[in-house]
Predict the structure of TetR family transcriptional regulator.
Amino acid sequence: MNEPVRPAPAPRRRRAAKTASAADTPAAETGRTNDPEATMADILDVATREFAAKGLAGARIDEIAAATRTSKRMIYYYFGSKEGLYVAVLEEAYRRIRHIETDMHLEDLEPETALRRLVAFTCDYQRSNPDFIRLVMNENMHHGEFLAQSRLIQQLNVPAINLLRSVYERGVREGVFRCGIDPIDLHMSISALSVFNVSNRHTFSLIFKHDFDDPAAIEARRDSIVEMIVRFVRA
């Protein structure tokens, strides 16, 4: 039977739930310890794996509840619906990578060094977080329908482009990068090369009889991607 479809809650509703008193929450009715932050983090962690593995259609709230220290009712209390939980999972996934990017202090590095570090980080992060790749691929199958519902995700991605734009424009001013490259296009190229390593490694390994999970192969591929991007932007 299909999960009940209910409207996704607005961000204001989810924030309000975090500060609700113990007497107002389903946890109080069932005798659970009321810790909204820990409960929501637990739900998001399990739901991330569930949605990444099965997609929005295949994931089940019952299974997510069973794998957490909460209940189906509380999941709906915090997130409103299955779709609301899915949007929250997307928001958390993007928040994590963007938070790390903005904390890299690339402005303290020479432009080429900064670009190399950013590209290497992207490769390593995508490789270490395959669930993020699966979530993005799944959302593309929905034509970005649920991502479009989140203002937070759109706000999170602005600093990512601004970060790359700042590195690139510094390089242009210093004469080490060539003019005429769109930072969004450059970001797309970095993402495409990094994502492919994760999304297609199993088929490539089988077709070409090559172990792309070997640590040496992973390092060589990352270095190759870094070098491709740097040579592309060099003056």
